């Protein structure tokens, strides 16, 4: 049996910080509302393209794994805010890293993109198509933000996280996952004007309009992640109390708390960094896992559960053996 061990990890958070107080100078909002409704205090804003953030995170993951760029056989880039639709963004990372031997593909499932990318890479390693892969979740959501809409502008930030995966004979890496999508509700979270269906120059002309039904998304986020976690636990015959750490998508602290209650898991088993970065969409779960590792929260042999949720409305849960 082959597994896909995560032997390297890295992140890239842009240095520019946008605090709740900064947002209150642009919008009719305040630190108290944002903190109590979401748990967010600040987020990062990138001044470079998403591929540049991704390349730095990937280079750090490679260095962490002790590998050369030419060793890499596959790069999968998860995002919603690609610099261009053609050529793909993974090929840009390949070029910037000098990873000339890597196959390259992009995955877009909104906030779950980094986790869906992890599934694809793990499956390709397990099946023997490749022996290793770089998986990236990166986003510059600030580029498609409607900065006049307080319902969404306060919730998001930019960043990138990356992993190096290596084939292994021991049980490790992703040992079970569950993926799904509430396609019938896809319109309740959408960036209208972003894509070929809409007016071509909507971005340039600042005509992006976010559809965002916060309370409906909240409910679907909880039920989607709960359902995914239950499926993963049942599939792997593991009880929730055997989980050492939950590293969830960070869209709202109240969503995380509600999910933890449903899973009957105490707060000290849940990793939270939403206060520093807000929701970085595809980068959120990867960066959270990188920081959980850096902070010593993921110990050898730990069982880590990673539920995520995003536009689509896609949902997922991954169970990792560390
Ligand atoms: N500052 C101040 N007031 C605000 C702001 C703001 N930034 N945004 C909204 N309000 C107001 C509203 O206008 C409303 O005012 P009204 O009562 O006069 O109409 C009031 O605050 C309450 O609004 P609600 O929508 O009821 O607030 P709620 O408690 O539901 O919180 C929130 C809103 C934070 C968006 C919440 O619904 C949520 O987190 N939903 C899920 C978000 C999510 O999951 N996003 C990402 C998922 S997918 C992905 O990651 C891409």
What can you tell me about this protein's structure?
By secondary structure, the chain is of the alpha/beta class. It has two domains: 3-170, Peroxisomal Thiolase, Chain A, domain 1 (3-Layer(aba) Sandwich); 175-321, Thiolase/Chalcone synthase (Peroxisomal Thiolase, Chain A, domain 1), CATH 3.40.47. 32% of the residues lie in helices and 25% in strands. It is built from ten helices and 13 strands. It has helices spanning 20-24, 31-38, 50-65, 89-97, 113-126, 150-153, 214-236, 253-262, 274-277, 284-294, and strands at residues 3-12, 17-19, 42-44, 74-78, 103-107, 132-139, 159-168, 173-181, 189-192, 209-212, 245-246, 303-310, 314-321. The chain has a five-stranded mixed beta sheet, sandwiched between helices. Helix 3 (50-65) packs across helix 4. It is globular, with a radius of gyration of 18 Å. Acetyl coenzyme *A binds next to helix 2, helix 6, helix 7 and strand 12. The site of acetyl coenzyme *A (ACO) has 25 residues, from helix 2, helix 6, helix 7 and strand 12.
